[in-house]
Write a structure and sequence with these properties.
The protein is an alpha/beta fold. The chain has two domains: about 20-300 and about 490-580, Metallo-dependent phosphatases (Purple Acid Phosphatase, chain A, domain 2, 4-Layer Sandwich), CATH 3.60.21.10; about 335-490, no CATH class. The chain contains 16 helices and 19 strands. The strands form four sheets. The protein has an eight-stranded mixed sheet with strand order 1-7-8-9-10-12-11-13, with no helix packed on it. It is elongated and about 90 Å long.
């Protein structure tokens, strides 16, 4: 008997749903206005004036901790399948991981969980957080382990309600979904064992760091020793934004990050973490410092084949790994040929637009002429003022839609896109007249004939409009490196998820385990025991893949003079389990 039970979560956000796009535009405009006129961070600083880091360098008895595990998840709270799959992996007491070479590592669930920005989609609200973020994590944690301490920084989607819901859930010492919280502001500082610090910032929508936040981190820096090191979390990857964002788009972020690092902290940050780009990408410099993008907590996938040619980063940071691969990213983009399948409501919108385009054209051409008329379309109809007005409006909209990455070809790209739709509307109008003229017994003129004309025009626009849009996005991204966000958000891909599991070992080394889920489960069954999560992946879903290492663990040594390595040191506690078993070690593969 087929299992008909379904989890209570939501589907992936449909980013080309016209109603949702209008709602997003209004929310973005509102949040931008509120952000400029009434910065919520200033109020929070007044309500919580004390600067006191959360101290995880000692245990409950006050003794120094020898080691600590924590997890980093960014860009979550979208569809159930993707968000819950990551939550399941995070919630396990232990997670045995295999890398591409077949080596196996055993990791432990973190005592701290960091939400690294954009904890809900499409816009922030208490109900949105509850449905898309907290409910999946609460369901995943059941029967697994105690909820970890939760720290969060806001991304742009968290700011879309002026940060009200974010502050209510994460900054008022509540226990959302059972998670204990400690932070009082939208940014935080956590003291970790062996001189490590975990700092999270809030750059707001305008990539701005406010004065109270600067003073907060200045006070935190005064508590640090000279040899202490920092893991710095931002909602956006300042180091790569200038290359992946359109020209002139929010250029202050990198300057603010550099100011915070060099002028405020006065320390050399060892590890930079960020989300916002929904994939995994790591850069490393010769000193072993890391810049890692890990925005795969549940939101739709972003492409990795932009920029088309990456420019060198400051301080000799070079790319080391990405997930998915560049080749896989380019192949995924071809799914835009099935744009309509993923975005049927956009097809309804284009169907209406094509009716507005073609109906006056048909009327002007005498499309309803009786059988035997010499031509159902006339050249003079192309000069119909209504047709020209709708065509001009559509073309102007598409010129505005065209990505600034086209540069001086932005106008021609939008113009060509608009003319393609207009041409398609003309061809559909011509085909409609041929069909309706051949229908026997259909009087002319008649409401029945007009109704059939409108239905055929709508159906043609429903099919052709999304198809043209999909081809446009495919050619734009794979051919010109433009529209990366639109070309992948249109696909609402739940797969290729990732998060980071981080361990400070007894010797003070920092281990970073980049964990990827190639394909998340699509089918779930209710748990049969209270010792299981609420929902378990159905064994019939054979295509789902288990969590695995994207690349071997990255190790940041205790001395800044020692570079990091993607191969574990010979005396490391996380040598591959297979190797330890061969040497008589105590750890064995599960």
């Amino acid at each position: 008997m087929k299992n008909t039970a379904r989890p209570p979560g939501r589907r992936m956000v449909s980013w080309f749903d016209p109603i949702m796009l209008v709602m997003m535009a209004l929310r973005a405009a509102f949040s931008a206005l509120i952000g400029r006129q009434a910065d919520r961070r200033l109020l929070d600083a007044l309500e919580a004036p004390m600067v006191e880091p959360s101290d995880f360098s000692v245990d409950a008895t006050g003794r120094p901790r020898e080691e600590l595990w924590f997890d980093y998840v960014a860009d979550l709270g979208d569809g159930w399948n993707s968000t819950y799959s990551v939550a399941l992996a995070v919630s396990r007491k232990t997670l045995t991981l295999r890398d591409a070479a077949g080596s196996v590592y055993e990791t432990s669930g973190g005592e701290i969980l960091v939400f690294g920005g954009d904890a809900v989609y499409p816009v922030a609200s208490v109900n949105g957080y509850e449905q898309r973020t907290l409910r999946p994590y609460a369901a995943a944690l059941r029967g697994q382990r105690p909820p970890p301490h939760l720290f969060a920084i806001p991304g742009n989607h968290d700011w879309y309600d002026g940060l009200t819901s974010f502050v209510r859930l994460f900054c008022q010492t509540r226990h959302p979904a059972g998670f204990p919280t400690r932070q009082r502001r939208s940014y935080f500082a956590v003291k970790l064992p062996h001189g490590w610090w975990l700092l999270g910032t809030d750059m707001q929508l305008e990539s701005d760091i406010d004065a109270p936040q600067v003073r907060y981190f200045q006070a935190i820096a005064a508590l640090m020793r000279e040899e202490d090191r920092i893991i710095l979390c931002h909602a956006e990857p300042a180091w790569l934004c200038p290359q992946v964002r359109p020209p002139g788009d929010r250029t202050d972020l990198e300057n603010n990050v550099e100011f915070l690092q060099s002028r405020v902290l006065g320390k050399k940050v060892s590890v930079f973490l960020a989300g916002d780009l929904h994939h995994y990408r790591r850069h490393e410099n010769p000193e072993g410092r890391q810049k890692i993008i890990a925005g795969g907590g549940g939101a739709f996938l972003h492409p990795t084949h932009i920029p088309r040619k990456e420019q060198p980063l400051a301080d000799d940071f070079t790319p080391r790994a990405c997930f998915p691969s560049v080749a896989a990213s380019r192949r995924i983009c071809w799914r835009n040929l099935g744009f309509l399948w993923k975005n049927p409501r956009f097809g309804v919108f284009t169907g209406i637009v094509y009716v507005l385009l073609a109906w006056p054209l048909m009327k002007g051409a005498g499309a309803g002429c009786a059988p035997g008329a010499p031509s159902p379309m006339r050249g003079a109809a192309l000069l119909d003022p209504v047709f020209l007005l709708v065509t001009a409006a559509l073309t102007l909209c598409l010129v505005g839609f065209a990505d600034r990455r086209f540069g001086r070809f932005r106008g021609p790209a939008g113009l060509l896109h608009g003319l393609t739709h207009s041409t398609a509307a003309i061809l559909i109008a011509w085909g409609t007249t041929r069909i309706t003229r051949s229908v026997p017994g259909l009087p002319f003129p008649s409401p029945q004939r007009d109704l059939l004309d409108v239905a055929l025009l709508f159906f043609g626009g429903f099919l052709m409009g999304p198809t043209i849009m999909g081809i446009y996005l495919l050619v734009s991204l794979n051919g010109f490196g433009a529209h990366p966000n639109e070309a992948f958000s249109s696909l609402s891909i739940p797969d290729w998820k990732n998060f980071l599991r981080i361990h400070i070992d007894r010797d003070g080394r920092l281990w970073i385990f980049p964990i990827g889920i190639r394909r998340v489960p699509r089918a779930w069954r209710p748990a049969t025991s209270v010792e299981e999560p609420e929902w378990v992946a159905d064994a019939k879903d054979r295509r789902a893949t288990p969590p695995a290492l994207i690349e071997p663990p990255i190790v940041v040594e205790t001395s800044e003079a020692c570079p990091a390595t993607t191969a574990p040191p010979r005396d490391a506690p996380h040598r591959p389990i297979v190797e330890q078993a061969a040497r008589g070690g105590s750890r064995r593969a599960a």
